């Protein structure tokens, strides 16, 4: 008979336990960053280096095939595919980097680079809408990522603001390759997956009609169109509280650039959206074509317009203006000869001089400040000894007048 302690010891020595232990030995799990249907994403710290990562912990304990991983397409297999694709697309600046993988029969741990600024979805919720300039930066990065994925023959199938993360510099990282698939050049897919508001018409048709031709990588470009629309105005193009109506709107390509939200958006932005939200996938722009659309060319034009000489000249003018303003307080005012002649008392420096002369001549009228000497008040002749001093001031005045 096997005792409970023996059983525990036996379990502790299973290779799976070692795998989980391996993760916990290397990383210290912290708070939850996000949750999916069967996964939890936690912040974790690498014990040896103190570096932070995001660990996606997938619970595969309910998987039908368990550790066997055969038969039907299980969560384990789905996770394996996600890992394979993540490794295949590794190395692109705008795609999430997978650092480490730990697998057991109950859990899979995927250790990703950490995106401290979270989901684009939350960012958009906070700011409500994005400026065209900001949308341009994000969409350009997104098309570059999609172009790279498609070159690698991968279709993401779940592009949406929740699956686009923002790193420390607010650059995007496309994540969640749970629905991603490898696809051969002319291969067509038929399975229904993704998120309702972002589903392309041909994907819906493939799951509704038996003779539908299926879908390919173009579904990612449709999702990009929905994302771009949403970023600019803060609400999605096909949304309806009744999901059936929303899906019908998608299939009919029924959306509008409503007023007043779209009034100030440029024609280039609208044109790019129009060329992405095209019902026929063959007529839809691909990622490479989208990057060449005039909406993005204006970024380059602005860069080309940069003139180092002009900018430097402008900087010099700015500095000179600032110095002038700073010195203004201490700069002497230019006084015209006419003003000195006609109204010398208007000029502060002359006024002081005139007052000084008058005081020196008549100050004996004022006894110790404010008490007046009555007898002196009747003296109408200036004191003779002071007249000598005042003659110097008069000389000064005379010189000034000649100036
Ligand atoms: P699921 O397949 O379950 O949707 P995701 O890979 O999309 O799993 O991750 C779920 C959520 O966890 C994301 O929407 C995001 O909020 C958060 N998350 C995932 N990866 C990271 C990461 N590298 N950095 C920060 N947060 C992340
Ligand atoms: Mg997700």
UniProtKB/TrEMBL annotation:
Gene3D superfamilies: Phosphorylase Kinase, domain 1 (3.30.200.20), Transferase(Phosphotransferase) domain 1 (1.10.510.10)
Binding site for ATP: 56
CDD domains: STKc_PhKG (cd14093)
Chain segments annotated as coiled-coil in the UniProt record: none
UniProt-listed SMART domains: S_TKc
GO molecular function: ATP binding; calmodulin binding; phosphorylase kinase activity
Enzyme Commission (EC) number: 2.7.11.19
Source species, domain of life: Eukaryota
GO cellular component, one term: phosphorylase kinase complex
Annotated keywords: ATP-binding, Calmodulin-binding, Carbohydrate metabolism, Glycogen metabolism, Kinase, Nucleotide-binding, Serine/threonine-protein kinase, Transferase
Annotated GO biological process: glycogen metabolic process
Catalytic activity: 2 ATP + phosphorylase b = 2 ADP + phosphorylase a
Residue ranges of every copy of the Protein kinase domain listed in the record: 27-296
Subunit organization: Hexadecamer of 4 heterotetramers, each composed of alpha, beta, gamma, and delta subunits. Alpha (PHKA1 or PHKA2) and beta (PHKB) are regulatory subunits, gamma (PHKG1 or PHKG2) is the catalytic subunit, and delta is calmodulin.
Family: Belongs to the protein kinase superfamily.
Protein name per its UniProtKB record: phosphorylase kinase
Biological source species: Dermatophagoides farinae
Organism lineage: Eukaryota, Metazoa, Ecdysozoa, Arthropoda, Chelicerata
Recorded name of the encoding gene: PHKG1
